[in-house]
Amino acid sequence: MANGSRGEGASPVPPGIEATPGILAMYERHGASYPYWVTGVGVLGSFATLLTATIINVAIPDIMGALGLTIDQAQNLVSAHLAAGTVTMLMTAWAIRAFGIVTTFLFNMVLFAVSSVAGGLANTGEILFLARLVQGAVSGIIMPLTMVMIAQVFPVDRRGMAMGWMAVGTVLAPALGPTLGGYLVDNLSWRWVFFMAVPFAVVSMPLALVFFPTREERGPRPSFDWVGVFLCGVFLLSMLTALTEAQSEGWYDDRVTIALAGTVISFVAWIVWEARVDEPILDLRLFRNTRFLGAAIVTFTVGAALYGSTYIFPLFLQSISGLIPTDSGLLMAPAGLVMAVLFPLSGYLSDRFSVRVLLTIGLVITAWSCWLMRGVDAFTPVWDMVIWYAISRAGLALIFPGLNAAPVNALPLELIPNGAGMINFVRQFGGALGVNLLSFALIEQTAQHQGRALATQTWDNSGMGELIRLVQEEFTYLGFLGYQGFEMSFGYVMAIVSSQGSMLGYRDAFVYVGVILLVSVLPVWMMGENRSVSRLRGV
After folding, report:
1. In 399-501, at which residue ranges do the beta strands (DSSP E only) sit?
2. How far is CA 207 from CA 109, 350, 454, in A?
3. How far is CA 441 from CA 242, 247, 322, 412, 444, in A?
4. 3-state DSSP: the chain helix, strand, coil percent, rounded to 5?
5. Residue 213 to residues 20, 97, 152: CA-CA distances in angstroms?
6. Domain CATH number, residue 439
């Protein structure tokens, strides 16, 4: 912690700073502007790596056509990014201790730039999948590293505001991804969704050399928990495989059963191992802190809702509303601007008011927007959907700054790197699980709605007969006579019924997201008060 001492010519470190000696030295060297430089560099790196998480969503149809991928393989491009980042987030604390912040940041940004270029040039699904894995792995390191730096360069009673600015990179990037991706796909090529983030990464590297500290620990590097990483990877891979295979083969398929068994066994083995090893990647001590545990649970569920809704909304706009990628992305742009405006304000409020109250309000607002979306269909006015989606992002803007600051404030300085990695891990894990479960629910509900609708389309249904007659008259007018006209009319009516089932499936998916958010209110009240508010109240 800063003690106010400084060398000749050094700038004073303000009170309330809790930081390592290396960061304090950098603070004294660069002066009062240092926290803002650190935030800018961290946001640049986070924005670059996280932009790739969702920018690919609107490009999936084009990628499938260009590389001949199935829908399952295309979904794996999304899941691979999330899963890889989920594992590496737990490695952040070790990497900082072993190599230092600046070396860790630079190595990962170079790796990110190379993998992004490789993804943009890929001519096979395998190369593209590998590029997505590396991109995800890098984002898993950069996010918690940025949180570690920002938490230490701002006083405790201003961390909420700082996390608000950090959220511009860590949450706004995934929110704006579909908008940028839609424009690039329609005007250039799907390959540009990979190239887009490279300039941000390149700009951040020389700045990191100036403002990030080198390794502070002396002596040998800490041992790496290879077994823990392996078991964590097996757990995530088994779980995602089970969810993916279940969508196409059903829950009783042998491969799904084996994958589910592997999920349970690897998870139990992982927890047992981490409880015994000296240098674990999963520090179980964190969960003894009730405030941190509450924040972790809320972060998990909010991550599932955020990534899940960001995945299905552009799909709805393209598959049901019939919009092109550019238009679907533009519909999501106002919501991103709402977040950008509200993040700093929300951070300011979280430093001065109860974070539990702010999070509860944000969760209820976001759930309300999902309730509004339960009535969407192909004829819903565009501006209605823009407003509903913007409301959801306004709610999330109230949530994230306080939710990022709360777990950090609950921990002592030495556990902040572990806590930052863990809190980002649970968010990413929630996102990976949310995308897969919501995708599975969408397929299941669509099939059920279509099945019920098709079961009523018999010749005893006078409504169906009348609809086919009217459609057939239109085809006759266009020159399709006799059996050909009838066949086309029948197919057209069946397509309408199928589309109706898909629309109802999307409605159900939005409702599920809303329910998840409302349930998240319960663990919010485990988090306690933020330290700055407690001091204001004399606690």
Report:
1. none
2. 12, 29, 60
3. 14, 9, 22, 41, 5
4. 80, 0, 20
5. 10, 12, 12
6. 1.20.1250.20
Sign of the C-alpha dihedral computed for residues 59, 63, 65 and 69 taken in this order = negative
- Residue ranges of E strands in 277-329: none
The answer to the question of residue 38 being in a domain is: yes
For residue 357, what are its two tokens?
């109250």
pTM (predicted TM-score): 0.75
- Stretch (H or E) spanning 185: helix 172-187
Helices 254-276, 226-249: inter-axial angle, 10-degree rounding: 160
Q: What is the pLDDT of residues 378-403, one digit of tens each?
A: 777 878 888 888 888 888 888 887 78
Q: What is the pLDDT of residues 211-221, one digit of tens each?
A: 888 887 777 77
Q: From CA 229, how far away is CA 234, in angstroms rounded? A: 9
Residue type, 338: V
Helix axes 71-89, 226-249, angle to 10 degrees: 160
Full residue range of the structural domain in which residue 507 is found: 21-224+279-448+503-536
| Euclidean distance between CA atoms 202 and 195, whole angstroms | 12
